[in-house]
Here is the input.
Amino acid sequence: MYRRMLTIRLFEEQVNDLYTRALMPGLAHLYIGEEAVAVGICSALERDDYITSTHRGHGHCLAKGAAPGRMFAELLGKEAGYCRGKGGSMHIADPASGNLGANAIVGGSTGIATGAAFSAKYLGTKHIAVCFFGEGALGQGLLYEVMNMARLWNLPVIYVCENNLYNEYTHFSETTAGDILARPAAFGIPAESVDGQDVRAVYATSRRIVDQVRSGKGPAFLLCNTYRYRGHHVGDVSRGYRAKQEEQRWMTERDPIKLLGEWTIGQKLADHDQLDAIHSRVKTEIDAAVEFAMQAPFPGADQAQEDVYA
Ligand SMILES: Cc1ncc(C[n+]2csc(CCOP(=O)(O)OP(=O)(O)O)c2C)c(N)n1
Here is the structure.
């Protein structure tokens, strides 16, 4: 889990670099600071369980098993990318690792995840679906339609709300009335919250929920309290809508990688040198992945109209 969180962190730092050097088309929403959520939850899943993701989706894809090289290739619009360069940052799908796709429509993937859970139940496969979404999606009607269906039909789906406090530039308290957990509870869906900066807590909680959902008890809802360190997207650099002291507090006191590293050393499971060695290995892997993507060819012009449906 330490290595996976670090992979996401270093991947995202490279994305920021590629974007600011104008090498990457499109836009990117960085997941830095939230790594423990994706890693804690995906570590409790099987490879062929399903996930759906959001505009802030790189971390979910990597945590579920996507290869950094093909991810970078997708971001750079290259043929070797997961969507052959046609999806970009916000639409990465990797069916081989159960990733049914990121979705730039806020709340959009709640329907897809619930449909995947329906198919798993109908076909009797025992797979479950995890639907990641930000707290901004709590304002979307689709979520309530599908939570209703999921409860009525006892579907194996876990709704994971990542509350990083801000929907774009607005604090969630200005957009979200009442208690978040009361919303799934109104449908009879068991709901709980977890410290989204503590990967061990996220993993332990997810492990229990995953087992319940897989055993046929129907849907669940997990609220993960977390924080994004960077702007809403890479261009949001001044972040005047939130206090610098707040950012500093999360980064210094609540950093998920630092917290797990300190715990690991405190438990004498690893020492500083071993953690540094993991860091160097991940850095080498990420550098090689960027190089692979930079060298990879663009798709041919003859593919421009392939896979176009509308
Ligand atoms: C239906 C819809 N409305 C508006 C947008 C524009 N938009 C993109 S991200 C975002 C805020 C999302 O906030 P949240 O769901 O909390 O996720 P976070 O960015 O914090 O991870 C908005 C309003 C959109 N993509 N889709």
Q: What stands out?
A: The radius of gyration is 19 Å.
